[in-house]
Amino acid sequence: MGALEELCNSHPRVLEEVAKLQLPKGYQIRNDPWIYGTDDPNEKRPLVQFFMYVLAGDGHSESNHYSLPLKFSPVFEAYTNKFVRIDYLPGGFDEKTTPTQPWQKVPCVEYHPDLNNETIPRDVKPLLISQPEGPSFKVEGSKVTWQGWEFRVSSSAREGFAVYDVNFKGRQVFYRISLSEMTVPYGDPRAPYHRKQAFDLGDVGFGVTGNHLNLGCDCLGVIKYMDGYAVHPNGEPSVIPNTICMHEQDDGLLYKHLNYRTNNAVVARKREFVVQTIATVANYEYIINLKFVTDGSIDIETRATGILSTMPIDEDVTVPWGTIVGPNVMAAYHQHILSFRIDPAIDGHKNSVVYDDVVKLPKDDKLNPFGIGFVTERKFVEKAGHIDQSPFTNRQYKIINENKINPISKNPVGYKIMMPARQMILADPDSFNVRRAKYATEQVWVTKYRDHELYAAGEFTNQSQNDTGLGVWANGIDPVRNEDLVVWATMGFTHIPRVEDFPVMPVETHNIHLVPFNFFDKNPALDIPQANNNFNKSILAKVDTKSEPSACCKTNL
Ligand SMILES: [Cu+2]
């Protein structure tokens, strides 16, 4: 990235354009090299689009250049380093562009504490997480053992990490879980923004952009780190130290019941084992957490943070496809559409995918005379393909094993995939955006397992013309019922930026829960020791002298 940035910033044609800006003293130029995208089937050159910014801060390296976008954008050919052209960016409400003018000085919205003008930090007392007897987990090589869970973790240059061979209480549940792709299409229709569609795994890689995580910052508590690996531009392998962190954390209560007759309570706290990585893909950060819970469930969590990708906008102009987030700076509407590849092994590899709708029972004089009944209706996915979303029938997706009947419920054991209905990709079905990311059109896909089918939009996404992943594999032909199958869960979120997302965005969090559904013969977490204060050692706050000791943990058991 550094070499590309230098190539652009030092090119005579770019310097010519920079000279026209007549930048004041103390202001410099910075650029972000961007994936070029696709709008022409005949374009075969590997191209890079550079978005240009003013760097304020009087030479401070952490000044927020994204606050000061410029209106010209050079294009270079990768590898040959040939200059191709300069695109000019619109600043008004339509597609019109203008030649480069002297830069009009506007304040920079800074995020770094040295520069952000927040002179009085909040008073925050330490909140320490300690495990005086050591953690409850063991790690031997790649194998993690914790609270009934056994699984392996491996780093991946493309996916960040994958977990595999996942067992709970001695039973197989999943063979492999990983993020498989993320596309980020933008909604500003004007050139050259119509090509803004990143594939952050296929074009870049979450492992190779993985952060070196730090104790007490990225990960709190008693932490086990794993390294990742990348390829240096000179072809040599390089280590990314501590790019995956693993630790336990408390997540409130798991269950509670108070017998109001005796005032005895059973209370168990919910503890999670977190496997986390953080990727910095230029302006944005993505925090990927896989959280293993003591009740046999898994929470797949994405937190988007970092800095919005910004565009220039003239004073007093508004546009319907973006939010003005600072002086003369606009953040276009966009979508983050992730695909998680979930390779199940629910009590073995022969699994089926079903979807259950909850529907009204027809009114009936004898059975349902008051018209209040409702039941579930089950449908099976027979062939490789997708499932339509249906939020108003409370549609739930489940992976079941038809060969294994739960002795209590008398139906197949399974796991449900809990994910709320979400808007999928908005671009036109004929657009390159959709043709390149067919996976982004549907929330749940099912394919037959095949080696090497790992990435939802296909192996090669940079300037791709078509989705060579699910667009090919979800063929409507392969039988997937009672087969070794793969589920692809699309986590889509449409991001309409808000002023508060700038200059650095508080996390936006989205989750997919994998929850045992008639898999066990009762709540599998009854063996968790009951919560009590001899163990948890909480103390009363000394901020309000009138407060009385709480009886919430009182028990005579
Ligand atoms: Cu966003």
Average pLDDT metric: 96
Q: Structural class of the secondary elements?
A: mainly beta
Strand content: 35-45%
- Low-pLDDT runs of 5+ residues are none
CATH superfamily of the largest domain: Copper amine oxidase, catalytic domain
| CATH-defined topology of the largest domain | Beta-galactosidase, Chain A, domain 5
Task: Give me the count of strands.
Answer: 27
Number of helices, counting only DSSP H or I runs of 4 residues or more:
6
What would you call the quaternary organization? single chain
Over the alpha carbons, how many angstroms does the gyration radius reach? 27 Å
Could you describe the largest sheet, including whether it forms a barrel? 20 strands, antiparallel
Bound molecules: copper (II) ion
For the record, what CATH class of the largest domain applies? Mainly Beta
How many domains would you count in the coordinates? 2
Describe the structure.
The protein has 557 residues and is mainly beta. Helices cover 6% and strands 41% of the residues. The chain contains 6 helices and 27 strands. It has helices at residues 2-9, 12-21, 200-204, 432-436, 470-473, 533-536; strands spanning 28-35, 47-55, 72-77, 83-88, 138-140, 143-146, 149-156, 160-168, 171-185, 197-199, 224-231, 237-259, 264-281, 284-293, 298-306, 310-312, 322-326, 329-332, 334-344, 350-360, 374-380, 385-387, 396-405, 412-418, 444-448, 483-495, 505-517. The strands form 3 sheets. The protein has a 20-stranded antiparallel β-sheet that branches. The protein has a 4-stranded antiparallel β-sheet with strand order 1-2-3-4, with helices on one face. Strands 16-18-17 form a 3-stranded antiparallel β-sheet, with no helix packed on it. The protein is globular. The model has no long low-confidence stretch (mean pLDDT 96). The active site is at residues 200, 284. This is Amine oxidase. Residues 129-526 form the Copper amine oxidase catalytic domain. It holds the Pfam family Cu_amine_oxid.
